[in-house]
Design goal:
261 residues, alpha/beta, nine-stranded mixed beta sheet, 8 helices, 39% helix, globular
């Protein structure tokens, strides 16, 4: 059995179907909303595998991958690399498509390429990769990516490579927003590693800049709402607002800002 076959056999479609909706509910309790920049959902050819190249601003990023995969790409087989030591603590994650690597080592790079190349032989595969490799503030420029994804994009022919920008700003509520934006789709294969490194970093930086511009407007109309979550300030403040609404015969809206469900 090849390394990719071992990863594929560890992934359980049944557990993925159960875990995806659970993760959506979990995220909804901790964010005011999960929002995708309008008009950026990529049109992915069904006969080609996909490599998602994401920035890495937060611990929440893999959860966002699961939410996006569940709500917008349920027909795809999702996979992603994770630091091997961390995966040892959360072994069940192998059942949802995660596989262990040793970042920053020649052995880890070889494993990453071998597993990903094998998985991408299946056109239904969707690889989700936090390409910066470490937690990085989304405002830092220039964007710097680990070279593994450039090697992968050059080596694999015919995959769709898609940049994905993530941010988690606070707007008007006590809970943050989870904001996502996809960039333009690029066909993989050809070129040099250096050319792909520049191409990927430029594409992801442009996608992150566009998301930042949307985020700074605090305008939910710029986004497609994927999920609505926790709202209101809570405590005595919301109790007082609720009492005022009741006294006026009005419906109580917990949102502190302008958006109502």
């Amino acid at each position: 059995m090849t390394p990719a076959e071992a990863v594929r056999s560890s992934r359980s479609p049944r557990i993925v179907r159960l875990f995806g909706p659970y993760m959506c509910r979990y995220v909804a309790r901790r964010f005011h909303g999960v929002r995708l920049a309008r008009g950026t959902l990529p049109d992915l050819p069904p006969d080609r595998p996909v490599i998602v190249c994401s920035n890495h601003p937060s611990w929440w990023d893999p959860a966002m991958f699961m939410v996006l995969a569940t709500l917008r790409f349920p027909e795809r087989f999702g996979y992603g690399p994770m630091e091997a030591k961390a995966l040892e603590q959360y072994g069940f994650m192998r059942r949802i498509g995660l596989f262990g690597i040793e970042p920053g080592t020649p052995r880890g790079a070889a494993t990453f390429l071998k597993v990903c190349t094998g998985l991408l032989e299946d056109p239904r595969t969707m690889l989700w990769i936090t390409a910066e490799g470490i937690f990085t503030d989304p405002r830092i420029r220039p964007v710097s990516l680990r070279p593994g994804i450039a090697h992968l994009a050059r080596r694999v022919e015919g995959a769709s490579v898609v940049p994905l920008a993530l941010e988690y700003p606070f707007w008007d509520e006590r809970t943050p927003e989870a904001l996502c934006r996809f960039g333009p789709v690029m066909p993989s294969g050809g070129g040099t590693v250096e050319e792909w490194q520049t191409r990927l970093e430029t594409a992801l930086a442009g996608t992150m800049d566009a998301l930042a511009a949307d985020a700074m407007t605090r305008d939910p109309a710029r986004f497609e709402p994927l999920m609505r979550g926790a709202a209101g300030v809570g405590g005595v403040y919301d109790l007082w607002r609720r009492a005022k609404a009741l006294a006026r015969g009005e419906r109580f809206h917990p949102e502190h800002g302008r958006e109502h469900p």
